[in-house]
């Protein structure tokens, strides 16, 4: 049995994407006239590409501007770890392309969610907060766009812990958040709100409807079946 030659990353994205969506400010309901259109996606590298020494890439940037994609296995692994960016990608309200395997991936959204989101969302927010604090020390003010998205992330985390559902569009919070982006809200006020959101999120964990851990077995079953189908399709095409 001979493995096919390695495929360029852009070819994998072009020919094997199973799911793609718009992310960033447009997905969050925070887009303005100058907002970019960020595209994120998942591609399924054909199973035979894993048989040789040279493995397919775990992710790919491009080929379009503001486009980034993950190979399915890497995407699922990060989602099971409650990576905020990956979970948000799964819940984008602006899908662009979804094939049958992508549809099944989206049907697994509940399997990826667990109370671990508290640790990962708050942990990510704290790492971003340190960068903002460095800007405040150096420039006297934060980068207001970063402050806005930090608030949005923690608001999303709190809502997810309380409801068990991840909603990206900020809804009625759009205008207050855009006021932060424009620098109209004093930094001490934002600091207090950030601290309150972290505290409220911590308090919401114990009563959250989310399970303690994600359903790894269900996700792995999907991955194995998808890999097997890809291998069979390759053999039938020879």
Summary tags:
single chain; 238 residues; alpha+beta; Beta Polymerase, domain 2; 2 domains; 5-stranded mixed beta sheet; 5 strands; globular
Number of strands: 5
Question: Judging by the overall fold, what is the CATH architecture of the largest domain?
Answer: 2-Layer Sandwich
Strand content: 5-15%
Class of the largest domain in CATH? Alpha Beta
Number of contiguous helices:
11
Distance between the termini: 11 Å
Radius of gyration: 20 Å
- Ranges where pLDDT stays below 50 over 5 or more residues in a row are none
The number of domains is 2
CATH fold description of the largest domain: Beta Polymerase, domain 2
Description of the structure:
The chain is of the alpha+beta class and 238 residues long. The protein has two domains: 9-113 and 214-237, Beta Polymerase, domain 2 (2-Layer Sandwich); 116-204. It contains eleven helices and five strands. It has a five-stranded mixed β-sheet with strand order 3-4-2-1-5. Helix 8 packs antiparallel against helix 9 (174-181) and helix 8 (144-163) runs parallel beside helix 10. The radius of gyration is 20 Å and the shape is globular. The termini are close together. The mean pLDDT is 95.
Describe the protein's topology.
Blueprint: H1 9-16, E1 17-23, H2 25-28, E2 38-43, E3 59-61, E4 67-71, H3 72-80, H4 84-90, E5 95-98, H5 100-107, H6 109-112, H7 116-139, H8 144-163, H9 174-181, H10 187-204, H11 216-237
Parallel strand pairs: 2-4
Antiparallel strand pairs: 1-2, 1-5, 3-4
Helix pairs in contact: 7-8, 8-9, 8-10
